[in-house]
Design brief:
The chain has 13 helices and 20 strands. With 479 residues, the chain is of the alpha/beta class. The protein has two domains: 267 residues, 3-Layer(aba) Sandwich (Aldehyde Dehydrogenase, Chain A, domain 1), CATH 3.40.605.10; 188 residues, 3-Layer(aba) Sandwich (Aldehyde Dehydrogenase, Chain A, domain 2). It binds nicotinamide-adenine-dinucleotide (NAD).
Length: 479
């Protein structure tokens, strides 16, 4: 059922050929061959840029009603085709089928949200000092955009950027993840069938650095959007900055979770096990550094271990599977190194700690206690199914420890005391803060980080901001 994936340029698919071989796509559950994804060369990139540039001259003047209708149709088509998209995504990305289906169905709502919000891209009228002058502020689409999306939520991350760009009246060249390309290709196909004019959305794949360098340097590109690691994000932002281009960056996080003494240990551990092991922990907002009050650490850890014990790790296509493999082999190697480093730094291994002995990129759900703050695991985003636990006594002191890293994407706090909840909400430094539940990532709420985790919001009423330029018009209406 898995098909080769083409480039999508000016409304036409260009598949890998014998004389233009693509990049192999491998199933992370068993390392078996799935197919090939086409590789763009400079000629393809030039054609994608030209197609997007030409399409922008028409699409920027499409009305809000036309764009909204298109996005509603996309929403409808996604829901109709969710099972097929999800099955291919589990094959190339690895997450359990139920999670893939949830991602596709839930993220279809981004199309609906953008369909609704694109009708509300208002300008305003500013009262002038001179009554013969009319002063307007209008929002105009920035132009041709390029975007780069990663492999952990292939559908989610692509649909957010596509809807925001197209809903604002921009056109887009998107480089999706070569490791897990099927969901992004399915989206492009759906947009075409929903009636999007050719050239408004173009998909390319290949060498990420070569493609981003070429696109960002092109004078035709007005805006750059990236989701991925902080290291790559900083490079792309610097490159775009040198050309004075608009940028939005959704980068990594290392979310602190502070669990106060008053917390309901059983409730919190259930919630965190569900949140932590979803997508095998490969989530930028994953709860990631566990600070547990010393008075409840034993009870909390026992409760956590009890829930992890029964977690079924396996092929995402198996309906019994609760946690799939990691998406790629380099993630497994990274996690092994982080666990080894923690143990060398004095941490205690309570569960897992190693790869699973079978074909595929599997890693055991892992819990480490007494992880010192200088261990790499407490400093670097693990992006995997690993829970490092440390303790605290004083809330002010632990908030300072939580804020000590350069990350600032998500943060979590748990307490049954009202004043502690307020202290957590006010004190944690992150773009998204969730107290006493796991409540981030809705279409109607802004998603984005501060500090090294990036800038710009996806979703919420802010979703179109970085795709629009504010233009002030002043007009003398009569002498
Ligand atoms: P990475 O930043 O190298 O790659 C992430 C995505 O960006 C990939 O899909 C890749 O194709 C693309 N990419 C890489 N270099 C690029 C470039 N020069 N130009 C344009 N696109 C480029 O990260 P990785 O090695 O795949 O994963 C390492 C770490 O990155 C993870 O452990 C995690 O910390 C972070 N990450 C974060 C997210 C997120 O959602 N914020 C997603 C994926 C990875």
């Amino acid at each position: 059922m898995y098909k080769d994936i083409g480039l999508f340029i000016n409304g036409t698919w260009r598949y890998p050929q014998a004389d233009r071989p693509g990049i192999e796509i491998v199933n992370p559950s068993n390392h078996q061959h799935l197919g090939y994804v086409a590789r763009a060369d400079v000629n393809d990139l030039d054609q994608a840029i030209e197609a997007a540039r030409q399409a922008f001259t028409l699409w920027r003047d499409s009305g809000a009603e036309q764009r909204s209708t298109l996005l509603y149709e996309v929403y409808r088509l996604i829901l109709n085709e969710a099972e097929t998209i999800a099955a291919s995504m589990t094959l190339d990305q690895g997450k359990p089928l139920a999670e893939s289906l949830a991602e596709v169905r839930f993220c279809a709502e981004h199309a609906k949200w953008h369909a609704e919000e694109c009708k509300r891209l208002y300008g305003r009228l500013i009262p002038a000092r001179n009554l013969r002058v009319r002063q307007l502020v209008v929002q105009r689409p920035v132009g041709v955009c390029c975007a780069f999306t990663p492999w952990n939520f292939p559908f989610n991350q692509a649909i957010r950027k596509i809807c925001a760009a197209l809903g604002a009246g921009c056109t887009l060249i998107l480089k999706g993840p070569e490791e897990a390309p099927s969901a992004v290709a399915a989206l492009a196909d759906i947009f075409k069938r929903a009636g999007l004019p050719d050239g408004c959305l173009n998909l390319v794949w290949g060498d990420p650095e070569q493609i981003s360098t070429y696109l960002i340097d092109s004078p035709a590109i007005a805006k750059v959007s990236f989701t991925g690691s902080i290291a790559v994000g900083k490079r792309l932002a610097a490159q775009a900055g040198a050309k004075m281009k608009r940028v939005s960056m959704e980068l990594g996080g290392h979310a602190p979770v502070i669990i106060c003494a008053s917390s309901d240990v059983d409730k919190v551990s259930t919630l965190l096990v569900n949140a932590k092991f979803r997508n095998a922990g490969q989530i930028c907002i994953s709860p990631s550094r566990f600070f547990v009050h010393e008075s409840i650490v034993e009870a909390f850890t026992a409760s956590l271990l009890g829930k992890i014990d029964g977690l079924r790790v396996g092929d995402g296509m198996d309906p019994e599977t609760q946690m799939g493999p990691l998406c790629n082999e380099r993630q497994v190697t990274r996690l092994e190194a982080l666990v080894d480093d923690s143990l060398a730094a004095g941490a205690r291994l309570l569960a897992g700690g190693s790869r699973v002995d079978r074909a595929g990129n599997y890693f055991h759900p892992t819990v480490l206690a007494d992880v010192p703050s200088h261990a790499r695991l407490m400093q670097e985003e693990p992006f995997g199914p690993v829970i490092p636990i440390t303790t605290f006594r004083d809330l002010d002191e632990v908030i300072a420890r939580a804020n000590a890293l350069p990350y600032g994407l998500a943060a979590y706090g748990f307490s049954e005391e009202r004043s502690e909840c307020a202290q957590l909400a006010d004190g944690l430094q992150a773009g998204m803060i969730s107290i006493n539940h796991y409540g981030l990532g809705m279409p109607e709420t802004p998603f984005g980080g501060i500090k090294d985790s990036g800038y710009g919001s996806e979703g919420g009423a802010e979703t179109y901001d970085s795709y629009l330029s504010t233009v002030f018009i002043t007009e003398l209406t009569r002498d």
